[in-house]
Design brief:
The protein is α+β, with helices and mostly antiparallel strands and about 140 residues long. It is built from seven helices and three strands. It has one domain. It is globular, with a radius of gyration of 16 Å.
């Protein structure tokens, strides 16, 4: 069974990343939804789809994409892996300010906010812990 990570460009020019085991069904769900991020920003374009061998890998890549800059997402959409790699290198101007602020107020942050920060840092174990709690074994 295949699993997919996808990247949509919404009508407000924002990007939405997700993962699924049935891309056709999931796109129909986005088209028919009455609420949610994509529903409020239709129409959307499917800009990129990647195939993975397990749900865990698809989710891990989705979480990685969500932390990427627009430029890096653009490079992914255009298959420019050299640019994705270049944009992955830390620059002297990189700031941890949002993470530092959240760490300082960790007691006030919701579990979802804490998970999203860990995911943006590339914490695959955090994503796998969520999968474990949901009962995914990596092959379903």
């Amino acid at each position: 069974m295949a699993f997919f990570t996808y990247l949509l460009r919404c009508s407000d020019d924002s990007y939405y990343a997700g993962h699924t085991d049935n891309i056709e069904v999931r796109m129909n769900q986005h088209r028919e939804a009455t609420d949610g991020y994509v529903a409020e920003r239709r129409p959307f374009l499917v800009e990129w789809v990647g195939e993975f061998e397990s749900r865990a890998k698809a989710l891990a890549f989705e979480l990685k994409i969500k932390g990427w800059s627009r430029a890096k997402k653009f490079a992914l959409i255009h298959g420019d892996w050299n640019e994705v790699s270049r944009l992955s290198r830390p620059s002297g101007e990189f700031s941890n300010q949002p993470f530092d602020k959240l760490r300082a107020n960790e007691g006030e942050a919701s579990p979802r906010e804490r998970f999203e920060v860990r995911a943006q840092r590339g914490s695959v174990p955090a994503a796998l812990a969520v999968l474990d709690r949901l009962g995914y074994d990596g092959d379903n």
